[in-house]
Amino acid sequence: MKSLFPALLLCLSTLAVAHQEQEPPALDLVRLQQEVTQEVGDASAAVVADALENLRQPDISIMVTKSRAEAEPRG
């Protein structure tokens, strides 16, 4: 996503310059589509990596504390 915004700003600035010069903008739509697809794929991979990191097992001390608390009768 970090390079998606600069790519979009580049396109907008190209449009602005072309509009000032009264020329149609020359956009490489295939390259732009590839960049956007790559950025979306990278962002998706980052989300999955974060989710997997959050799913790792907690430290053993946390697990033991939870087990003891569950094993002890209340009241």
Spell out the blueprint of helices and strands.
Blueprint (H helix, E strand, L loop, with lengths): L3 H18 L7 H26 L5 H12 L4
Order of helices and strands: HHH
Low-pLDDT parts are none
Number of strands: 0
Structural class: mainly alpha
Count of DSSP-assigned helices: 3
Our measurement of the CA-to-CA distance between the termini, rounded to an integer number of angstroms, reads 53 Å
> What helical percentage do the residues reach?
over 70%
- Estimate what percentage of residues fall within beta strands: under 5%
Principal-axis shape equals rod-shaped
CA gyration radius, whole angstroms: 25 Å
The major pleated sheet works out as: none
- Average per-residue pLDDT, rounded, comes to 76
Care to describe what's here?
The protein is mainly α and 75 residues long. The chain has helices spanning 4-21, 29-54, 60-71. The relative contact order is 0.09. The model has no long low-confidence stretch (mean pLDDT 76).
Provide a concise account of the structure shown.
By secondary structure, the protein is mostly helical. Helix content is 75%, strand content 0%.
Task: Give the key terms.
single chain; 75 residues; mainly alpha; 0% strand; rod-shaped
